[in-house]
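Q: Structure tokens for this one, please.
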Amino acid sequence: MDADLLLIFGFVLAILLIVLTFGTVAGNRSRAHKLQRLELEARIAEAKAGQAATDNTEHRQLEERIRVLERIATDGNHALASQIDELRDLQEIEVRTMPQGATR
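A: Here is the predicted structure, written as tokens:
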């Protein structure tokens, strides 16, 4: 073999080794990035689902309170003060039954 041919062959092998190594490292990093992105998207979806459930519960509680207030405002047969006291008692019960660390 000719010396120039060996030099060219060695150069091509070196370039090929560098390119393949870079491609492997870049591929691994790309896969790791995609996996991390999917995990974060799953956490975001989980958080949104939890937030929606919390909002739904709070929404129902507010609707119930509004219904009671509408009934108090439109019903003239009951004493207004006693019903307001009942609402306060209901709120105190909710606060006492709420789990530790939960905020409204």
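A few notes: The longest helix spans residues 3-74. The radius of gyration is 34 Å.
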